[in-house]
Specification:
The complex is a heterodimer of chains A (483) and B (434).
Chain A: H1 6-17, E1 22-23, H2 26-29, E2 45-47, H3 52-65, E3 69-72, E4 89-92, E5 99-103, E6 108-111, H4 117-124, E7 129-130, H5 143-149, H6 156-159, E8 166-172, E9 178-182, H7 193-197, E10 206-213, E11 215-216, E12 220-228, H8 231-243, E13 250-255, H9 256-266, E14 276-284, H10 286-302, E15 307-311, H11 314-334, E16 337-340, E17 343-344, H12 350-364, E18 367-373, E19 378-379, E20 381-385, H13 392-409, H14 428-431, H15 434-446, H16 469-473
Parallel strand pairs in A: 2-4, 3-4
Antiparallel strand pairs in A: 1-2, 5-6, 6-10, 7-11, 8-9, 8-10, 12-14, 12-15, 13-14, 13-18, 16-20, 17-19, 18-20
Chain B: H1 13-17, H2 30-35, H3 42-53, H4 61-68, H5 75-79, H6 86-98, H7 107-120, H8 123-138, H9 141-146, H10 155-163, E1 176-179, E2 186-190, H11 196-199, H12 201-213, E3 216-220, H13 229-233, H14 237-253, E4 258-261, H15 264-271, H16 273-276, H17 284-293, E5 294-296, H18 297-302, E6 315-319, H19 323-328, H20 333-341, E7 345-347, H21 363-366, H22 368-385, E8 389-392, H23 395-407, E9 413-416, H24 417-429
Parallel strand pairs in B: 2-3, 2-4, 4-5, 6-7, 6-8, 8-9
Antiparallel strand pairs in B: 1-3
Helix pairs in contact in B: 12-24, 22-23
The structure holds flavin-adenine dinucleotide (FAD).
Flavin-adenine dinucleotide (FAD) is lined by residues 35-36, 70-78, 81-82, 93, 113, 135-137, 141-142, 144-146, 148-149, 151-153, 201-202, 206-207, 328-329, 417-418, 454 of chain A.
Chain lengths: 483, 434
């Protein structure tokens, strides 16, 4: 903690929120030292505000005590974004979980930041509407976390990621002022500050309310499972489908390794002997869906598909999706630890990039399972390892870095959807020039967030932050789960 | 003296390492849903257990309270994509706290273990206590209290009173051969349980009827004792092991093909006798063989040809999945298959049928407040179905939902699935036109 005694910080926060909503004992803080990554760092205090005014009060008090502020949703982040590397006040937004409005005519929802993604979808469904961004973690993750990470999901291919669905935000700025950005109607005049906030990973402010765009549920949906002999054939099928003029709402790749991990546990109906599978979804009016499905099927066969199955029944479709959504978690049962990567490449480069990923993993001596948003070229290699083996963790991190290089060299980037967070800030220099990064720093300065608001995240450098990937992560490593 | 995990049951590093902190368990956990706090979530509790195990935090009363607030419903195991064996990690953690010298144990924990050890494990004492309850019910005092007199009681007492069952039926204490059908297919042994036959004799009667209906000879070995599930959940592994040994010997002597259990919590514990006795070389093999013969009554009946000669039962039914049937034993289809086969039963699913009702063994007594909160959500879900009958598969759930129905004024009759099946069997036997 920077200045002031911990006692007065806790007392001030208790005064603002009530003692029941402030945690500060070691045995309480320990469960707020993680998100879904490998990093760990203890906060000094954890607070659970219930209103925008309470959030602002917490930020104000942290400012007065000159300690860092880190926002947190459900802690499912995959880049260490909610890990308080320099301690300070962790602001957990799960109590602000009310859906304030669902307007079927304007197709708009107004929600608090702690609302669970799936809860919003469930609230919109009876009105024939849906909230399109659907991360695989949607049962758990919050809208605030989605906005901060500009999260995507299987359906991002057709609908775009979170940024395309945020109309307006209420935000508590690093100086504790409350501002509204954007507007309920599209195309607000002036500088698009709403766009800046989305994807800022909690470094520019805390979202306390969001006005979101809802889209109409399509009357007909069909889910296809195409089975291939290899990831290369399946990758070609993705490009071939889009070349033939159809953009499915989702195109998800599962390789042989992941199918063999998921199928015995989830029984989704994926063939155990498949070299790769594509889970494809098309939606629209019934006739259109039938036509699109026919095009997809033909494209898959042209690329060498062994079989294309079609599911229209809701229960059958859910089963196919269940396997996809549980896939990453299921790796936890198959290996002592694994390291989940997130990179993005141009779709057409998928076959060669995947070949290189597999070659690099083989050469390094690690099993690698792949499940990812193929339509977006968004890769998720999962490197499985045993941290008890000598130097295994370091070698895995080296391999991860090499794979990120391959993505960047192929014209891609270092994150497709999980964010930069703590984990990948040193890679930012691979994709941005010093001038590019200076511009990003300048935005942070303009928001008044330098060094205190979610410090050591997204941008390289910063006071009290280690530099370089290995150095960044190693002090925070613990035995056990390496996502 | 500082508390640590000690003894033979310290949670294993391998079990804990399966958790990848993805958080998929959070929305399945009744206490996380109620509080929104990581501390009351499975992921958080696993992390606390790791922290205590590695000596990073002390096992303070506050840390232990979070472990204690766990219902042990194991819904998180169903939600977990990484197959974390949460139930046994929690049982191991509690056992490793209770393996400390008595003076160091948290007071509430040792009191509870003491009570369980000295009452449930001793049928005579338990019956004495229940006799008082029966007198209370039969004398009419209970109905007086539940009528006007009740308003005079303080709220806490009234809640406790409403949680006690009406003990009006004669207890089920028969042992030996309970049914010997003409075409005997198999010989099965039935667990009577410590308190089950005292509270709900009708469930045992119905189970015997259903087993005979599928041509099983039913015996109840007289030497059997309490299954030890509640002791395991409370961290008293030693008492649980002693009870397990006696049950294994009792059922071995009865030479049965299967051990039938009509209480989901008991069945789940007995299926895990092999693990419970894993450190005991003399008993491990016998325990594993015994465990492989244990079947929930519904699991067993649904696997036989039970659909013949069923008569109509006029009930609108919804089903509360017993946690230790759905999550621990992974049995969801059997109760639905049985209800679906009974003519006249109109079945409606409630919202989240596999979410805990808050009974959780003795949880409803020791964590009354959280239990009541969890129960309230459950009663709303039940009321929304409009069903006249709530089916269960466990006496604890029955007790809890009956109490919820009284407290929240939901007009629902609570029955074990097997009771509804027995009604249908009886109706099938009645001469037509009767
Ligand atoms: C198994 C698994 C599958 C996943 N699948 C996907 C997927 O398909 N697509 C995808 O994009 N992601 C996926 N994720 C990653 C993760 O779920 C998303 O990044 C999600 O948006 C994080 O939400 P959260 O509420 O858990 O946020 P946290 O992890 O709590 O926080 C994430 C970031 O948001 C910031 N933050 C949180 N709330 C606020 C707020 N109110 N205001 C400002 N900043 C805030 C935090 O500081 C942090 O930087 C997956 C994760 C797991 C474990």
């Amino acid at each position: 903690m920077a200045t002031g005694s911990p006692g007065t910080l806790v007392r001030d926060l208790q005064g603002a929120l009530g003692a029941a909503h402030v945690l500060h004992l070691p045995e309480d803080l320990i469960v707020y030292e993680y998100d879904a990554t490998i990093e760990r760092a203890l906060p000094d205090v954890v607070v659970f505000p219930a209103t925008t005014a309470e959030v602002a009060a917490c930020v104000r008090i942290a400012l007065d005590h000159d300690v860092p502020v880190v926002p947190r949703g459900s802690g499912t982040g995959l880049s260490g974004g909610a890990v308080p590397v320099r301690g300070g006040v962790l602001v957990v937004l799960t109590r602000m979980n009310r859906i304030l409005e669902v307007d079927a005519t304007d197709r708009v929802a107004v929600v608090q930041p702690g609302v669970i993604n799936l809860a919003l979808q469930e609230a919109a469904a009876p009105l024939g509407l849906t909230y399109a961004p659907d991360p695989s973690s949607q049962r758990v993750c919050t809208i605030g976390g989605n906005i901060a990470n500009n999260s995507g999901g299987p359906h991002t291919l057709a609908h775009g990621s979170t940024v395309n669905h945020v109309l307006a935000l209420e935000v508590v700025l690093p100086d504790a002022r409350v501002v509204r950005l954007g507007s309920r109607v599209p195309d607000a005049p002036g500088v698009d500050l709403r766009g800046l906030l989305v994807g800022s990973e909690g470094t520019l402010g805390i979202v306390t309310e969001a006005t979101l765009r809802l889209v109409r549920q399509q009357p007909a949906v069909r889910t296809l499972l195409a089975i291939f002999e290899s990831v290369e054939d399946a990758s070609n099928a993705v490009s071939e489908t889009i070349r033939r003029g159809v953009i499915p709402v989702a195109m998800e790749m599962l390789d042989q390794e992941i199918i063999r991990i998921v199928e015995p546990r989830i029984r989704a109906g994926y063939p155990m002997d498949a070299g790769a599978a594509l889970l494809i979804e098309v939606e629209g009016v019934a006739e259109g869906v039938a036509l699109d499905a026919a095009v997809v099927e033909a494209a898959c066969h042209a690329a060498g598909a062994r079989e294309v199955r079609s599911a229209e029944e809701a229960s059958e479709r859910e089963r196919l999706w269940e396997g996809r959504k549980a896939a990453i978690g299921a790796i936890g049962a198959a290996a002592p630890a694994f390291y989940l990567l997130d990179g993005v490449v141009p779709r057409t480069k998928l076959p060669e990039v995947m070949a290189q990923v597999m070659e690099l993993s083989r050469a390094a001596g690690f099993r690698c399972a792949n499940v990812f948003h193929a339509g977006d070229g968004n890769l998720h290699p999962n490197i499985m390892f045993d941290p008890a083996e000598p130097r295994a963790t370091e070698r895995v991190l080296e391999l991860g870095e090499a794979i990120m290089r391959v993505c960047v060299d192929a014209g891609g980037a270092i994150t497709g959807e999980h964010g930069v967070g703590l984990e990948k800030r040193s890679y930012m220099e691979w994709v941005f020039t010093p001038a590019d990064l200076a511009a990003q720093h300048a935005v942070r300065d303009a928001f008044g967030s330098t060094d205190r608001f979610n410090p050591c995240k997204v941008l390289p450098g910063g006071h009290g932050c280690a530099s370089g990937h290995m150095k960044e992560i190693s002090p925070h490593l613990v035995e056990g789960a390496y996502v | 003296m500082t508390l640590q995990f000690v003894g033979p049951d310290i949670p294993s590093a391998e079990d804990l390492a399966n958790c990848i902190h993805c958080g998929f368990c959070l929305p399945s956990c009744p206490t996380y849903v109620a509080t929104g706090q990581e501390l009351e979530s499975p992921r958080g509790r696993l992390h606390l257990i790791s922290g205590i195990r590695e000596g990073r935090i002390a096992a303070t009363p506050r840390a232990l309270e979070h472990l204690d607030l766990c219902l042990q419903c194991r819904a998180c195991e169903t939600a977990c994509p990484s197959a974390v064996p949460y139930g046994r990690i929690m049982e191991d953690a509690r056992a490793s706290i209770m393996a400390n010298p008595a003076a160091a144990q948290p007071r509430g924990w040792s009191l509870r273990a003491f009570a369980l050890r000295h009452v449930l494990a001793h049928p005579a004492r338990l019956r004495l206590a229940l006799a008082a309850g029966r007198l209370y019910s039969r004398s009419g005092a209970q109905s007086l209290v539940r009528g006007h007199l009740g308003r005079l009681l303080p709220a806490r007492l009234r809640r406790l009173e409403s949680a006690t069952p009406a003990l009006t039926d004669a207890p089920f204490r028969s042992t030996g051969v309970l049914a010997s059908p003409a075409q005997r297919r198999e010989r099965v042994g039935m667990l009577l349980g410590c308190i089950h036959g005292e509270l709900y004799p009708r469930m045992h009667e119905a189970t015997v009827t259903a087993l005979a209906h599928v041509d099983a000879e039913v015996v109840a070995p007289p030497e059997q004792v309490c299954c030890g599930a509640l002791h395991t959940h409370a961290g008293d592994a030693e008492t649980a092991r002693a009870l397990a040994r006696r049950n294994i010997a009792a059922f071995e002597a009865a030479e049965v093909d299967a051990v039938i259990v009509n209480a989901a919590g008991c069945g789940a514990a007995m299926k895990e006798y092999g693990r419970l006795l894993r450190h005991d070389p003399n008993w491990r093999g016998r325990a594993e063989r015994f465990a492989s013969k244990v079947r929930d009554a519904l699991e067993y009946v649904a696997g036989q040809d039970f659909g013949h000669d069923l008569g109509a039962v006029d009930r609108t039914v919804t089903l509360q999945d017993a946690c230790h049937l759905a999550h621990a034993q992974r049995i969801r289809e059997a109760p639905r298959a049985i209800l679906g086969a009974i003519p006249g039963v109109a079945f409606t699913e409630m919202r989240h049928p596999d979410r805990c009702c808050g009974s959780a063994g003795i949880y409803s007594v020791v964590q009354a407040e959280m239990s009541a909160q969890v129960l309230e959500t459950k009663m709303d879900a039940i009321a929304a179905t409009g069903a006249g009958t709530v089916c269960t598969a466990n006496p604890g759930c029955t007790l809890q939902i009956e109490s919820g129905a009284r407290r929240h004024e939901v007009a629902a009759d609570v029955r074990h699935v097997i009771e509804v099946l027995a009604e249908s069997i009886a109706a099938g036997r009645a001469p037509v036109g009767d």
